[in-house]
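Hi R.,

Here's the chain you asked about this morning:
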Amino acid sequence: MTVSPVPRRRRRPAPSTDTASRADDAQALDAARQLALRLQGGVPDALAQFRASGLGGVAVPKAYGGGGVGSGTLAQLIRLLAAGDPALARIAHSHYAALEVLRATGSEPQKQAFFRRALDGERFAAALAETGVDEVCRIETRIHCVDGHYRIDGRKCDAGGAAQADWVALSVRSGDGNLLLAFVPRGSAGLRVEADGGVAIDEVEVGPLAVIPYRVVFDTPGRVGPLAQLLHAAIDLGIADAALADSAAVLRHDHDAQRLARFGWLGACQAAAGALLDDAALQVDALTAVPGQTIHDAAALAVTAARVLCADLASQAGAAVFELAGRRLLADAARPDRHWRDARRHDAGRPARQQARVIGDHCLNGTPPPRHGAY
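And the predicted structure, written out as tokens:
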């Protein structure tokens, strides 16, 4: 039996010589750091802070007036936000995921229209998941063409941030089985965002400009799935960062050999997870530059490996807060159990154990990763 390793890039691409690109990436990360600090200190309206920061436009391509930042910058940005407020990081993830599908499949008029809205501060929420459907490409929400317009019926679950978004991006299936993505104004008649994050859709009407191809995301190798999962891994790592920072604040003043060893182990895992995240981002950028099946599979496997390790670290670091910091942190008004709960909440949608099986199947059998939006 031959064991196939997870593919890794042997050479890092040369640093960009585009001074403007480096400046845009640096500005985006600086804005994210400043926002993360405010989040850690407590802000009354995190979404308003996100909108005011301009971070909603950093993923818009440069050709349309945006920052056009790289995958690594987006991942680090999300990691910073997750350390301050995982809920806001998930909302930002949903926004960037919707814009990435637009970049990959939208027509020129559609890109002009919706990228401009993102640059103007409007926010998008991707509503893709459905109860009982484990693959995005098997969704049941339906769209029908009626007199040159489209009408949508169905239900979504776990649409993070949809209640506060300006636009809800709904994955839908047409009568002939084609998959589409419809950008729907949140206040549309028939669209109801529920308290549990679900979205009820009852004869919601949209124009043709708001409906873009989605099936192509699964039929051709591209970065939509790998980028989305890369940002999920960044959320997990940000949660772990916050948990370890809380533990460190206590351990600096009160520690013993056993707790130092445990904290050191988690710190080593944190460094390894960060390295995997950086490497995966490089491979996603390589896929952006030169799309192809082989490069796609390498990027998807690298991202999946990062997701598995980051998710496990978030859970371990969140639980370890109690054994490392003890009673001192239990008196914290910010509730130290939030890290463990944040990690479990984020892992619930796509458990790391499912993704670990993909890595195992590849290592043992050379099986390529599936292509259905989660890889």
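Residues 9-17 have pLDDT under 50 and may be disordered.

Let me know if you need anything else.
M.
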